[in-house]
Amino acid sequence: MWDRLREWFRERKEKLDLFDETQVDRQDNPLYLLGQIVYFSWIAVVVSGILLMIWYEPTTHGAYNSILRIQHEVPLGWLIRGVHKYGADMLILAITLRIYRMYFLGEYKRPNELSWMILFGSLVLAMISGLTGYLLIWNQRAFWAAKVVLTVAVYLDELPLIGQTRFGSAIAFAFLGGPAEGQGTLTRFYAIHFGISALLLVAAEIYFYFTRRRRFVLSPTALVILTLMLVVTSYVFPAEMGRRADPNRTPLPILSDWYFLALYQYVKYTPPLWAGLGPGLLIAYGMLVPFLDRSKGRRPSERPFFTVVGVMALVYFLVFTALIMFNIAVIGRDPHVVLLVTAATLSVGLGLEFRYRRRKKLEEAAAPSPAPRAAPARATAG
Amino acid sequence: MNRRTFLKALSAVPVLGALGAFLAPVLRYLKPNLEPGLGVPQGKIPPDLAEGDLPKGEPLAIATLEELREPWSSKFFVFTQKYPQYTPELAKAATVPGVAIKLPWKLAFPGYKSGKEPTDIVIFSRICPHLGCIFNYVPNWREVTAGYGGYMPPEERRHGLMACPCHLSIYDPADREQPGRVLSGPAPRPPRYFSYEIRDGVIVVTGAEPGGIA
Q: Which range of residues forms the domain containing residue A337?
């Protein structure tokens, strides 16, 4: 048992591919540049972030002013801040697109399970980095977003049995650094925001040291284009400031960074305990999908159920984001619609899956000669 | 199981124990130093908590009865609570925004003489019991249907309502059975109330219902 686990792990470790650095020969397809874009934007964010630390002041009174100063007074401050903000957006966008690529093309299957899990975990960490990062501005949007997210954790105490330990409140207090959102929260968020990237950077360096692979396999043209994108965006759309945080006034509507918007809409629809459990289940599904999907094929049409689930997730993300941006939510009606649509879609997915399997079985029965064809194909590939 | 595996497993126990003993203080390191009395759930006072550890607020005059004469008129205020804490000032202040609303009818409100006498003034904490945002009192119910997510109140509730901008919970301050009843949205219970007295035509807030957000 132990040896089998170790063998499984060894095989995955050899095939590990964190930034598409083994896909050099497929780079004419922009889908296989995504991993490299992740690495590029990550480095851009880390470097600009360290430069921002020179001017940033992590106190509740001084944070907002120090960022005003960076944006308007410090020479090239707007550029550094823009690269940091839009680099982070690019990072999350690239990770998300890469996740969808791996999902729809079945790239999470053997032997890439570990690569997929690391990628999915990195999306969660990147989103935590984003959440902790935009509180540092200490503006209205960030203040209320952090308050809401940390209060969600408190409701985990309502869970039967494990709720008795009050671990939800413990999580909230550990992040808040005190009874309410204040200086303690800002200090801790600053540490987490910096710490995630610092530790992961060390881990990535160790990975490159042992695999002896090149970090950057991006062509110089792509590098220049990506850099120009960041610079031009920072110049044309200067990074937003928002309003200074006011603990006694909640703005209507409250929004957050774009990758949290869909979740915000979801929180409106559910009882507060499920506001925490839902995203947890989503993360669990993402992490475990390589083990749930036992189908052999890699093409989307060869595993209809998982394709349908992926499309549904994408559509929900887009629709919920649109709904919250236009501030549309009919609490009495929408959750029923969502549940109904979800149930219908999943049934359609299951139906397609069964139909596909039946057909394949019939085909195999009609032409029973797959074994001799498969063997030489594998030999040439290896 | 052979002898070697057994001995390995046996020696793993103290190693894991030592690891746990090392990790437990690390987890404790993450926990902020909390003053006693905070995070008391649902208004319950735990047995290990002395009466003096509960947060206290100075009585605060918020409005005269004259100011709140019209039905559905309201007054916002901010109540300051003090928590005993080992700081140089020996107390830590927390502010609770609140709203006083004049109703056109009388009802039993737990904040006024413990609900024994009916009153037509209700005072609520504006901290949303869902996720802690600050909600608003909306005198015109049509604004609730427009800005706060399309909830259409039934005929008898078309009056001033309280609505939260974060996740669109809507409360009825004038519900006769349960003032602050949740009409719509994800909130699990009504907002916390303030207790108050009327001294010479002035509304004086004397305390807040104990308990955290959730």
A: 257-363
CATH classification code of B41-208: 2.102.10.10
Q: Do B186 and A270 touch (CB under 8 A)?
A: yes
Q: Residues A181, A150: contact at Cβ < 8 Å? A: yes
Give yes or no: residues A307 and A357 share one domain.
yes
> What is the residue extent of each domain of chain B?
41-208
What total number of domains does chain A contain? Answer: 2
Which of B31, B186, B188 comes nearest A268 by C-beta? B186
Q: Are residues A154 and A195 in the same domain?
A: yes
Give residue B94's pLDDT: 73
Do the Cβ atoms of A323 and A261 come closer than 8 Å?
A: no
Which residues, in sequence order, are CB contacts of A151 under 8 Å at separation 6+? Answer: A172, A272, B130, B131, B132, B213, B214
- Residues B92-104: tens digit of each pLDDT: 667 788 999 999 9
Q: Give the pLDDT of residue B52.
A: 56
**Residue of B125, B167, B169, B189 to mutate, testing the A interface (most A Cβ within 10 Å of its Cβ):** B167
Take residue B189 and report the two structure tokens written for it. 């219970």
The reply to whether A42 falls in a domain is yes
The kind and range of the H/E element at B197 are strand B194-199
ipTM: 0.74
List pLDDT tens digits, range A66-100: 999 999 999 999 999 999 999 999 999 999 999 99
Clarify whether residues A290 and A350 are in a common domain: yes
pLDDT < 70: residue spans in chain B: 33-56, 82-93, 211-214
**pLDDT 10s digits, B153-192:** 888 888 889 998 888 889 999 888 888 899 888 888 899 8
CA A114 to each of CA A9, A108, A158, A355, A382: distance values in angstroms, whole numbers, following the listed order: 8, 8, 33, 31, 21
